[in-house]
Design a protein that fits this description.
With about 800 residues, the chain is of the alpha/beta class. The chain is built from 27 helices and 27 strands. About 0% of the residues have low confidence.
């Protein structure tokens, strides 16, 4: 199957298969080859994302069901488009709609699915019944509201219906009596509990710390078959052409799982794998690549002006008073989350490791407390999302990591002894530890530090490394060369349903690095105005300086002239999310409504202030221009670099989304169709107002349209070589240039990653700006610029003062 690009679509009750049918011709015109669908299996009623699957055997009726999917497929077949689905092997929805849970509740140990769910027994939760954190109050206070239907054998709890064991007789029980109800409930295979008492954990493995998502044993053969029967059927019927695997790091053994899947489905497989720093995707995965967060990291950070990194840190520290070290902050937050959100998981791991230690001669003096302390430190210091320990693998890296922990702990030595010659029980413990590591990193970094450490929130993105200030051009090339050799069909992305910011607002915020002094003066002036709108009492001010610093950055999502009621709602939603994720003054579990109320007032008054807008406008204008240009060039890299480009819904045009749920709002495809029709009518780009197109987002659409269609028509070239090109001259350090080649076909890609050297006004790069900067090709070629149509006859020296005639970028092709 020829896949040249993906287009991610969020399906839900408001956007179904039938709605998707209306835009497939638009997507085909845009140059898309493959639809990339959010989870399509039956999920919790009303789910806006589909990751809370309740039945693996059925296509979600809320999005159109199987009939809708088949009808969509037939339409796509006619225009040579195909489908990639998003599949969730790690967890399911934890509610009464889960058909496998209900089977367990109904049949107990006789249920086929009794061992399907990943239960973790601890001393706090020693019982076999599955905890259901569905009560809005303590159990004894909730009993009066729980209804038992003895005839139907159903318990009605908080609008959820749970099956009672069908082998028990309840007909002679007074179901209105709370003691009788308690007796009945204590006999069941579910245990209703007050949700607050389950914040620190339950007796089942969860997706991160989300109690409404219960993990499953997808690695067990009988359950693997049931889970995958429907999607394998779709594969055999040629309905799907590729598959994305969600949260692969949560699985007991991802390598074996993928191996089993690929035996049954001979299609491209992509894993949602978060790589850390210079970590590379292990070839043991046996997949086509990741979902693209590694590309996002390299492509974002290579546009950061490295010369100003220290200056911006000083400005941030001076304004906010935050002098915390990032490494210490992350360590402390990890410990906090382990003790307060993953206490059950830590207790479970401590139990299995301790019981295993004492079976060995070297573990004779192990204690449960010491084992728990050891595991806490291992998890809190761990630098990656996870590792992949399996039988006969090399344990040197993990052993060296354990030795490097600066703690005095007897069990640490026992762990090292165990790693010297592990047996099957040792491997089991290590694999279980690996499953919980990603949750600790994700919760602490992505869901907390990213909203606490606000130096430049354009850097605070999924898969990015806050410990790095920037990425060099050479590092970017090395990354692309590695992909070209090992994962040439991996996904390249800049925005997803999980990114913290859309690619255009992110690029504007990154542009702050180009002139930190201007930014420093700018926020001082803004503070003088907005300080009047703060709530102040007994030394407390709302928002605090760090939240205020974050606020000024997210306002770059829109020009002040469009700061209307809808924008205020969006900013308010994002700010409330940010302060709750940061967990300094308020949180999701225990929101401080007074604090949040004062914050909402501050936001509304500030955004509505004409004085504030007048100060914000000129700075926004300069960042909008250069930020939009950076975004366009990053999109060029996304399409032309090794890998397959992924366009998140609406991102072919301006994407100024915030974090979810903002980035999952409905897309105005009618407007996008009009813009594309306008773009398609452009015969001569030289006659267009380029600056206006940059600001409006039309140039981004223009570039995406031309390059996606070029790639669709010449996709074989992108399976060829990636060769970095050397640049010389006065601005050579500001140029990313490379060649893609296959046979005689050559594509030359040139973009500038540092054009915004002066933000005191819009000074678009002109020809003289590039001076003697040039690229020498191996020999002479006849080239055509794909984006301008300009032709170059027998050219070997590419002088940027000539090539960059209207754009600070160029994509050249030696064919027709």
């Amino acid at each position: 199957m020829n896949i040249s690009s993906f287009y991610r679509v969020q399906l839900n009750k408001n956007f179904k298969f039938q709605d998707l049918e209306k835009i497939i011709y638009y997507l085909n015109d845009l140059g898309i080859s493959s639809l990339y669908l959010s989870p399509i299996l039956k999920s919790t009623t009303g789910s806006m994302h589909g990751y809370d699957v309740t039945d693996y055997s059925e296509i979600n009726p809320e999005i159109g069901g199987e009939d809708g999917l088949l009808r969509l497929h037939k339409m796509l077949e006619k225009i040579n488009m195909n489908i990639m689905i998003d599949f969730v092997p790690n967890h399911m929805g934890m509610n009464h709609e889960n058909v496998y849970l209900q089977d367990v509740f109904k049949s107990g140990k006789k249920s086929k699915y009794y061992n399907f769910f990943d239960l973790i027994k601890t001393t706090n939760f020693p019982f076999e019944s599955i905890i259901m954190p569905v009560l809005g109050n303590n159990y004894i206070e909730s009993l009066n509201d729980i209804k038992i239907d003895a005839d139907k054998k159903i318990a009605l709890i908080n609008n959820q219906k749970f099956s009672l064991l069908n082998n028990l007789n309840y007909s002679n029980t007074d179901t209105d009596n709370i003691f009788s109800k308690d007796k009945i409930l204590c006999e069941q295979y579910f245990r209703p509990m007050y949700w607050v008492n389950c914040i620190s954990g339950t007796n089942y493995r969860r997706f991160f710390s989300v109690n409404s998502l219960i993990a499953v044993h997808c690695e067990r053969r009988m359950y693997f078959k049931d889970m995958h029967k429907k999607i394998i059927e779709l594969y055999k019927n040629k309905i799907i052409a590729a598959i994305r695997l969600d949260h692969i790091d949560g699985l007991f053994d991802p390598f074996i799982y993928i191996k089993n899947l690929k035996k049954r489905m001979k299609i491209p497989v992509y894993v949602e794998k978060i790589l850390t720093g210079d970590e590379k995707l292990s070839p043991k995965f046996g997949v086509d690549g990741t979902t693209g967060y590694d590309f996002l990291y390299y492509t974002t950070y290579v546009f950061i002006d490295q010369t100003n990194a220290g200056k911006l840190k000083q400005i941030y520290g001076d304004f906010t008073g935050d002098k915390n070290q990032l490494s210490e902050m992350l360590y402390l937050r990890k410990k906090f989350y382990i003790e307060n959100y993953y206490r059950s998981e830590l207790d479970y791991l401590s139990g299995i490791f301790y019981n295993n230690f004492i079976k060995h001669i070297y573990g004779h003096e192990a204690t449960f407390t010491g084992t728990r302390e050891m595991l806490l430190e291992i998890m809190a210091n761990f630098p990656l999302y996870r590792i992949y320990i399996s039988k006969n693998c090399n344990l040197t890296w993990f052993s060296d990591y354990i030795r490097g922990l600066n703690i005095k702990n007897n069990e640490l030595g026992i762990m090292l002894n165990m790693l010297e010659k592990p047996d099957s029980n040792d491997y089991y413990c290590l694999k279980r530890l690996q499953q919980f590591l990603p949750a600790v990193m994700a919760k602490s970094m992505e869901d907390n530090i990213f909203f606490r450490y606000n130096l430049n929130i354009g850097k605070n993105e999924v898969g990015c490394n806050l410990f790095r200030d920037f990425i060099t051009i050479d590092e970017f090339h090395d990354y692309n060369k590695y992909k070209a050799l090992n994962y040439i069909n991996s996904i390249n992305t800049l925005s997803t349903h999980d990114t913290k910011l859309g690619d255009d607002i992110r690029s504007r915020i990154i542009t702050i690095y180009n002139d930190p002094d201007l930014w420093g003066n700018f926020i001082k002036n803004l503070h003088e105005i907005s300080d009047n709108f703060k709530y102040k009492h007994n030394g407390i001010e709302i928002p605090d300086k760090n939240e205020e610093y974050y606020f000024y950055q997210i306002l770059l999502a829109e020009s002040p002239e469009y700061w209307d009621g809808t924008f205020i709602e969006r900013v308010t939603g994002q700010m409330i999310k940010a302060v709750r994720e940061a967990e300094i003054h308020t949180s999701w579990n225990f929101p401080d409504h007074d604090y949040e109320g004062h914050l909402k007032i501050f936001i509304e008054r500030t955004i509505k202030s004409d004085t504030f807008k007048s100060i914000y406008m000129p700075f926004y204008r300069s960042l909008e221009y250069y930020g939009n240009l950076y975004s366009i060039m990053q999109n060029i890299l996304k399409i032309m670099s090794p890998g397959i480009p992924d366009i998140y819904q609406g991102s072919e045009y301006l994407n100024n989304n915030f974090t979810d749920p903002d980035n999952r709002r409905s897309v105005n495809f009618g407007n996008l169709m009009k813009i594309l029709n306008k773009i398609k009518k452009i015969d001569n780009i030289y006659e267009c107002n380029i600056n206006k197109m940059i600001i409006s987002g039309e140039l981004k659409m223009y570039v995406n349209y031309h390059l996606l269609n070029f790639r669709k028509e010449h996709n074989n070239i992108f399976s060829g070589d990636y060769i970095p090109l050397k640049c010389t001259g006065m601005l050579s350090d500001n140029i990313i240039a490379f060649e893609r080649s296959y046979g005689r076909n050559k594509i030359i890609v040139i973009v500038s990653n540092k054009i915004a050297t002066d933000l005191n006004g819009i000074n678009e790069p002109v020809r003289e700006f590039w001076g003697d900067t040039q690229i020498k090709l191996p020999r002479k070629y006849d080239l055509k610029d794909i984006l301008t149509g300009r032709k170059y006859k027998s050219i070997q020296i590419l002088k940027l003062s000539e090539i960059f005639d209207i754009f600070p970028f160029s994509v050249l092709f030696n064919g027709d």
